[in-house]
């Protein structure tokens, strides 16, 4: 009777151990699945952040290229404006020169007219 109780106790203990081992394996499997699900969920966010970063990098490069192009165009425009300004200054200098020459010619013309009138007056008074 005692030996049958011991055998029965060992049998029940073995059954409990098997159940416990089975539940431990199920718990480990469930923990592994949960961990994998969490990692997958985090990886989605990380992957999205990575894609966004790649897009930002590409747009930053494009913006830099556009800025460099704009800077070159601006330098060209500044150069054109400076040369145009210089040409305008030269035109102003030419205009001033022309006005000076015109004034000198008027003075000479007036002087010649006075001399001519005086010579005409003298020749009419001599006759």
From TrEMBL:
Source domain of life: Eukaryota
Membrane spanning residue stretches: none
Annotated region (Disordered), positions in chain: 1-20
Membership in a protein family: Belongs to the BLOC1S1 family.
PANTHER family in the cross-refs: BIOGENESIS OF LYSOSOME-RELATED ORGANELLES COMPLEX 1 SUBUNIT 1, BLOC-1 COMPLEX SUBUNIT 1
The protein, known as: Biogenesis of lysosome-related organelles complex 1 subunit 1
UniProt source species: Hypothenemus hampei (Coffee berry borer)
